[in-house]
Design goal:
The complex is a heterodimer of chains A (152) and B (144). With 152 residues, chain A is an all-alpha fold. Chain A has helices at residues 2-35, 43-63, 72-97, 105-151. Classes of the chains: A mainly alpha (152), B alpha+beta (144). The A-B interface holds A 13, 16-17, 68, 126, 129-131, 133-134, 137-138, 140-141, 143-145, 148, 151 and B 12, 91-92, 104-105, 107, 109-115, 118-119, 121, 127, 139, 141-143.
């Protein structure tokens, strides 16, 4: 039972991340289409984007599994590997599913740069925030222990 | 030996011993004062032990029985988690999940995780994930 609960929690976290990627893809796609005069999005494209968002999310969770025990250099290496996987996955998926069919080439280039920098920024700020937060937690913990020791 | 009691309205209660030299009588008084701290009762193989709260890393409830984890032993106890949480909160005990009370003094490091969770590494190397709900309480305790 504990294992099932643990898996469900892990899966829920992964799904939240996947939904974030999906929302980013879809928003970008909608904006470009809107500026090109198209006001509808094919249901199939939505499903494809959802699948890719989930796939990236699961890859992220596997690549960064037990990241709290990893050293900074290992984390950086894994991030480079992961970002290359994501870049290729988005390119291949976009080509295979024809997300950019009919778009001018400069529009495709902007989309790729925007999506990729978006993914990078989300990742970077997320982990930068967690690192900063961890430092604050460690400082608070140390001060708390000092206070307790002084009292005793 | 003269005994004098000073009553205070605020601040921490303390015992001050004024003596020319530390003798057996003074040692007895020190022992009495130090051992009057509340101890935690634990049991292994039918034998009862009195544990100092500072020795305890965490207490976990499994199948309605609370187990007390120290550096090298696991004791069975008759407490409920609420009791431990409230009796020893001044010694750093805090509820870190529905089924666990953690001694903050046994935490070696804290790490922020996705979803506002906290990963606590204990001095024995064990990892305890503190969920969002309880991490808010821990942050408050650390800042208080």
């Amino acid at each position: 039972m504990k294992k099932i609960m643990k898996y469900l929690k892990w899966d829920m976290d992964t799904e939240i991340i996947g939904c974030g990627y999906f929302a980013g893809f879809l928003l970008m796609y909608c904006l470009v289409n809107y500026f090109l005069g198209e006001k509808t999005v094919d249901m199939l494209v939505i499903i494809e984007m959802l699948i890719i968002g989930y796939a990236i999310s699961y890859t992220q969770r596997f690549v960064f599994a037990k990241y709290e025990r990893l050293s900074n250099s290992t984390m950086n290496k894994r991030f480079i590997v992961w970002s290359i996987i994501v870049f290729i996955a988005v390119l291949v998926a976009g080509y295979l599913f024809g997300w950019c069919r009919g778009f001018p080439w400069w529009c495709i280039a902007i989309c790729i740069i925007f999506l990729y920098s978006g993914i990078y920024m989300v990742w970077y700020f997320n982990y930068a925030f967690m690192r900063k937060d961890s430092e604050v937690l460690m400082k608070d913990l140390s001060e708390y222990k000092n206070r307790i020791n002084e009292q005793q | 030996m003269k005994v004098r009691i000073e009553y205070i309205t605020e601040g921490e209660e303390e015992v001050i011993i004024r003596c020319k030299d530390k003798n057996s009588e003074i040692d007895k008084v020190i022992d009495f004062v130090e051992n009057s701290k509340p101890k935690i009762r634990g049991m292994i193989n039918g034998r009862n032990y009195l544990l100092d709260p500072s020795e305890v890393y965490y207490c976990e409830s499994t199948d309605n029985v609370v187990y007390i984890y120290t550096k090298s032993e696991v004791y069975k106890s008759g407490y409920i988690l609420n009791e431990l949480e409230h009796t020893y909160e001044n010694q750093g005990f805090f509820r870190c999940s529905k089924s666990m009370v953690l001694n903050i003094n046994a935490i070696k490091s804290l790490r922020s995780e996705l979803g506002n969770k906290i990963n606590a590494t204990l001095v024995n190397g064990e990892h305890v994930i503190i969920s969002r709900k309880y991490s808010i309480i821990l942050r408050k305790i650390l800042k208080s």
